[in-house]
């Protein structure tokens, strides 16, 4: 003990204490409380164990299966369909030579990333308004009848996709711009000497150099596949479209905090957490294998 | 490799096309925001002339902003947001720095154990319900502290700061400690000043996070006078609950209030919520975006 005290500095624990207290309150105690997914939670008295009852009800419920489908579809759109867009954006921006234009484009397109989804929902609800919105004014110019996108089941998922793109296109391109900037110019110079055209340089130099970054970004995003963006959906959904945009996190909120089915909601959270954990660990392994850099 | 004669004209054409497309993206980003700004600043009598693609105000009036400033609920929510943001960010920086310092000192007992805890925090998310029940049990319901303390330590930021602290030469710290300085003094006088750019960046990100937070506020706060601006904005704009804002307490006559447009008032609320972000945005570009562009990716 004396020898250990000489080596270790126990007073450092005091510096760590506030952070540990925070983790305890907001992470570890709530995580240990998730055992209630296997109980019938009672506010007073002992909560009896019921095994996998809530999970059985969950998987037998058509509502939950629809929620799961919505989550997968929306995540697919926002992760897979969206994936090439920031790359194309970065490649195009890389060709802009004027530094004033570059700065203008960058500072404009990064801005939405810093707005809350409440604000973005407000902006989009106004822009898509059937009465006087910008998009319907455009439709009018082409003699199309006004359309209410926010309450249209066929359109709302594309509204989610479009608003996500509006918010993230610029910001998500930063990592690719950095990768483009780190490609050695000598590669292009020797390609020029060989008489390579722009397309060939793209195919044989730029894309291969970007590949590790693309793979990393893609894998990391896959780790969060079950999230699908709570804040966005929560602020953009309404009663007309809830059946097609209700995702796991909004479902967990509704049945848990609004309907107060605490154990049932926790079971849904636990299901999401376990799948999410598997995805994140897989992403970590995948990222380590390909880039020798894990998530931590 | 296949030889090909490249024509500069073709490349020039592509370059201009790309620039045009990127500027189109900028227009798509800016027009919806400028439209709301124009709507909020237009003369109430001419508001019907403002269409969805209008970007300049029709006439000029600050009446919408005066109505908001005269509404106690709105003013209070703005002040609540300022309070949550300032206190929350200060606490974030202090607690995250202390933890990052302790975790980068080789003499910290159980260091590996704490690192494992941090990874667990990173990959395991508690259920919303269980977090809610803990907050309720410890008596933080309807307290601003339940909102302020949420994300006191963002583990990703903690790790970024740890990497930054690791770059500081240990000899600097050891020398100070030989002189009898306590850990807290070393952190305050040596480590934090050296990490200023990193702390500024994290402070901006924490600050924007607090300013934009509405969800924890919506589940933990029950008294509307404690609501932050984003929550009032959500009720007013997203849930279209117009009564809450126009209602009582305006200093305007019925006539004036009747002439106002809800759309314009909603637009003004959105603009007020964006404004503080716009004010710190140049700093964000300066500290973060440029760092990323020039120094490679840090995250």
TrEMBL record, chain A:
Q: How does it sit in the membrane?
A: Multi-pass membrane protein
Alphabetically sorted, this entry's keywords are: Cell membrane, Membrane, Transmembrane, Transmembrane helix, Transport
Membrane-crossing residues?
12-38, 72-93, 114-131, 169-188, 209-230, 262-283
Q: From its record, what is one biological process in GO terms?
A: transmembrane transport
Q: Which Pfam families match?
A: BPD_transp_1
| Subcellular location(s) per record | Cell membrane
Please report the name of this protein according to its UniProt entry.
Answer: Protein LplB
GN (gene name): lplB
Q: Which domain of life is it from?
A: Bacteria
The protein's matches in InterPro entries, at most eight in alphabetical order, are given as: MetI-like, MetI-like_sf, UgpAE/MalFG_permease
Domain annotation ABC transmembrane type-1: ranges: 68-283
| GO cellular component labels | plasma membrane
Assigned protein family:
Belongs to the binding-protein-dependent transport system permease family.
From TrEMBL, chain B:
Q: What does the record list as coiled-coil region(s)?
A: none
Q: Which GO terms describe its biological process?
A: transmembrane transport
Q: What is its main location?
A: membrane
Show the GO cellular component annotation of the record: plasma membrane
Location in the cell:
Cell membrane
Boundaries of each ABC transmembrane type-1 domain copy? 78-283
Transmembrane residue ranges: 12-34, 78-101, 113-135, 147-165, 194-211, 264-284
Supply the Pfam families for this chain. Answer: BPD_transp_1 (PF00528)
Q: Provide this UniProt record's keywords sorted from A to Z.
A: Cell membrane, Membrane, Transmembrane, Transmembrane helix, Transport
Matching SUPFAM superfamilies, A to Z? MetI-like (SSF161098)
Regarding the membrane, this protein is recorded as: Multi-pass membrane protein
Of which family is this protein a member?
Belongs to the binding-protein-dependent transport system permease family.
Protein name in UniProt: Putative ABC transporter permease protein YtcP
- The species this protein belongs to is uncultured spirochete
């Amino acid at each position: 003990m004396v020898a250990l005290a000489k080596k270790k500095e126990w007073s450092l624990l005091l510096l760590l204490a506030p952070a540990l207290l925070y983790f305890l309150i907001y992470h570890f105690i709530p995580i240990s409380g998730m055992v209630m997914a296997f109980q019938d939670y009672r506010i007073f008295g002992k909560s009896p164990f019921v095994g996998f009852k809530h999970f059985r009800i969950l998987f037998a419920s058509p509502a939950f299966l629809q929620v799961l489908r919505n989550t997968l579809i929306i995540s697919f759109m926002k992760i897979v369909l969206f994936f090439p867009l920031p790359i194309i954006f970065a490649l195009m921006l890389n060709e802009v030579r004027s530094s004033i234009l570059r700065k203008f484009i960058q500072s404009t397109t990064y801005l939405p990333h810093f707005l809350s989804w409440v604000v973005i929902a407000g902006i989009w609800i106004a822009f898509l308004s059937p009465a006087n919105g910008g998009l319907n004014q455009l439709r009018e110019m082409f003699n199309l009848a006004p359309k209410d996108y926010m309450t249209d089941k066929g359109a709302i998922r594309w509204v989610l996709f479009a608003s996500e793109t509006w918010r993230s296109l610029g910001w998500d391109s930063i990592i690719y711009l950095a990768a483009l900037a780190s490609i050695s110019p000598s590669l292009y110079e020797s390609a020029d000497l060989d008489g390579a055209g722009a397309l060939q340089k793209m195919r044989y130099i730029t894309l291969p150099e970007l590949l590790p970054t693309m793979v990393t970004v893609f894998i990391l995003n896959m780790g969060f596949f079950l999230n699908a963006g709570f804040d966005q959906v929560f602020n953009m959904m309404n009663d007309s479209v809830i059946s097609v945009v209700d995702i796991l996190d909004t479902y967990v909120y509704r049945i848990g905090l609004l309907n107060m089915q605490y154990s049932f909601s926790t079971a849904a959270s636990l299901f999401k957490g376990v799948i999410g954990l598997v995805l994140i660990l897989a992403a970590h392994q995948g990222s380590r294998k390909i880039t020798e850099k894990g998530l931590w | 490799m296949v030889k090909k004669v490249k024509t500069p004209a073709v490349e020039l054409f592509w370059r201009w096309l790309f620039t045009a497309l990127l500027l189109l993206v900028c227009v798509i980003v800016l027009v919806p925001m400028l439209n709301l700004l124009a709507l909020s600043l237009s003369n109430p009598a001419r508001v019907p002339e403002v269409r969805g693609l209008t970007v300049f105000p029709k006439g000029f009036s600050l009446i919408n902003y005066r109505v908001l400033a005269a509404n106690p609920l709105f003013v209070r929510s703005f002040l609540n947001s300022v309070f949550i943001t300032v206190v929350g960010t200060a606490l974030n920086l202090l607690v995250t720095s202390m933890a990052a310092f302790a975790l980068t000192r080789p003499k910290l007992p159980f260091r590996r154990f704490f690192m494992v805890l941090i990874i667990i925090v990173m990959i395991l998310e508690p259920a919303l319900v269980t977090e809610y029940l803990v907050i309720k049990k410890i008596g933080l319901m309807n307290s601003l502290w339940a909102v302020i303390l949420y994300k006191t330590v963002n583990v990703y930021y903690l790790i970024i700061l740890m990497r930054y602290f690791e770059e500081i030469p240990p000899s600097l710290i050891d020398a100070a400690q030989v002189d009898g300085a306590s850990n807290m003094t070393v952190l305050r006088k040596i480590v934090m000043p050296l990490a200023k750019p990193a702390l500024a960046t994290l402070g901006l990100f924490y600050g924007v996070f607090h300013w934009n937070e509405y969800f924890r506020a919506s589940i933990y706060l029950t008294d509307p006078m404690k609501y932050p601006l984003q929550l009032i904005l959500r009720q007013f704009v997203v849930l279209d609950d117009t009564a809450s804002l126009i209602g009582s307490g305006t200093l305007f006559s019925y006539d004036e209030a009747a002439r106002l447009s809800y759309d314009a008032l909603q637009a003004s609320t959105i603009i007020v919520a964006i404004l503080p972000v716009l004010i710190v945005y140049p700093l964000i570009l300066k500290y973060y975006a440029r760092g990323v562009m020039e120094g490679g990716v840090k995250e």
